[in-house]
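Take a look at the protein record below and flag anything odd:
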Amino acid sequence: MQSLSRRISRGLPVGHVGRIFTVLALLSVVASQPIAGQSFTVKDLGTLPHGSFSVARGINNQGQIVGDSETSGLSRPHAFLFEHQVMADLGLLPGAGFSAATGINKRGQIAGYSGATALFEFAVLIDDDVMLKLPPRTGAGDNNNQALAINDHAQVVGVSGAHAFLFENGAVIDLGTLGGTSSRANAINDHGQTVGESATASGDTHAFLFDDGVMVDLGTLPGGNFSSATGINKHGQIVGVANTASGNKHAFLFEDGVMKDLGTLPGGTSSRANAINDHGQVVGSSSTANSSSHAFLFDDGVMIDLGTLPGGDLSEALGINNRGQVVGDSSSATSSFSHATLWTPAH
């Protein structure tokens, strides 16, 4: 599946957050556009000042959006919070060169990471405009520390020194592995159930569910040897990506002990699910008949193409809230770089 080649997927700053509020004139570059045949509109959220690219990674039920954006002509991104039509720069940790925001809960607490290089980065929690550096897992050191999700109880999960971790009550808990050497936690629900991926004793990578202190292997699609869980809702429904017997990667939904292949958009060969809300609506991206890649919504057994910003050919959906609002990024006719994007259902 073709991915957005111009997106920088790493980043997130830590430290005292000085928000630089900028009313985005860039929002007027591409107005909200209806999706043909669907009751959605798609909006370009723009970038931080003087930036060329941005990506939205998470949205809470209040409609607050987080992600990262280039700023001031620099190739390294800064984390942002978008609310009330304003994109605010969340800053960096002292001495850091980049930052990214990966998730936001109902209290407005934000998870992410920030660092000087991709090898030296710190998981962060942003609360009341203060960016707090989370301690690394014991023995992990300063490399490969990322907070990737947060729930409404301020439990944070991610990866620290190649192991999945849970941060709660001021402590970092190593979630271990499925017998291999590495793991990564990608999402957590309000029950504290955590999902992600882990190396197995055989060297394969499998999706896992961590619940009540136990990491459970969720297996793969029939004939496959790879899977990764990326989202979980309050009902314990899990989504992610796994390869099939043909070798192509497909989005999956795991429920009632069964991993279901969600297929692809018409004519596509690969797909990936990135998030699921409490209504069971799934979002992600899929290849299309013309070898492009488009954001999708999977609802009531149907995969819907969410399209792109006007004139674009690539998009992906990374988050969805319980109101059905979807965030991600998309290319467009007016920019050679992808921009943070909001898809809103019409009610």
In short: DSSP finds no helices and 30 strands in the chain. Residues 307 and 334 are 16 Å apart (CA to CA). Residues 1-34 have pLDDT under 50 and may be disordered. The first strand starts at residue 20 and ends at 23.
